[in-house]
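Section 5.1 Outputs to date
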Amino acid sequence: MTRFTTCWCLLLTFLAFGSRRPTTSSQPTTNLDEFIGNRHVADQKPPQKTTAPKKELTTRDARLAFIHKAQIWSPTNVSAMDLRAGPQGSGAFQPNEAVTCDYVEKKDLPGTTQKFQCAIHEGDVVKVRYGTDNGKVVGAVLASRLLWALCFGADRVYPVRVTCRGCSSDPWKKRQRIPGEQVFDPAAIERKPSGHEMKSENKGGWAWPELDLVNEADGGAPHAQRDALKLLAVLMQHTDTKPEQERLLCLPKGRTDDGRCDEPFMMLHDVGLTFGQANFFNRTSVGSVNFEQWTRVPIWKDAAACVGNLSKSFTGTLDNPQVSEAGRQFLADLLVQITDHQLHDLFEVARVDHRSRRPDSTEPAATVDEWVAAFKHKRDEIVNNRCH
């Protein structure tokens, strides 16, 4: 692949309110197109909350067989991706859309940052992240949109303004349902991608060293793509890389009648602790949308050997990964296709202006232009390097 070679992923067919995008009738909808949200799928419905399913990958051998054949990337025309609108299709929200929902009381929410469950309508329950001091509200939008634009797998995350019926002023701490309404702005709604999460040990997730178990000879992702994803994690400073932050997914229509999966995919799930500096204790003030820290961290720990600069947290499974020249080149070829306009849209829609440039201080936010310049500097570190 040369730097300016682009592979084509189907363009968005519909925008909000039914406006149309150019499309080519000869291009069919593929299972992966549905997964990444690059086409409106007429019969696709928002995911519904159900009881926890049984584990499909019940044995170590079954899980390894899934990973051996897994894909992690899809061909795409990066410069055509609309980073402001994000993934479209059923259940999508427009940037900063006003959303009203009904609080769903749940006592066992995972994690350590502010979130709650809310019903858009019966059968459609979403996760809402909120809080002006919650870096994941911004970080999850940034990282998931970047992954989506490059056609790596991630959840769909939408920056919105939420009016919650039945919420307390802080439903993370006060989880009882109460009368009245509360408005949360900024907030972000998270939707799962199309497909089926394959349940197994590690809560259905995977550890980053397991990328090395993917076997191209068995139909799995090539080594260059896997190294590119590791290097992208370095660029984002994806600090919390424990297995349950990632997912094993069967792409739409990939499940067989006997419960197996013909189209396995390894995706990232919780990417809110990004665009800061990876740190041992996964502190959000340091690791989640911290402009001062992110700009200080170089891409390379050893540029000549192509060792990425990503220190492992106490929960992490990725530690200063060494990538191949092919992996560096693969990511570079994708990154150079992102336009300045797209970068501006990315940082503006994520609302980086809502977060201090150093979140543990009273300093003002970095501007969108400052974030764009910092991203381009990091991109240059990847593009202009060569692995020896």
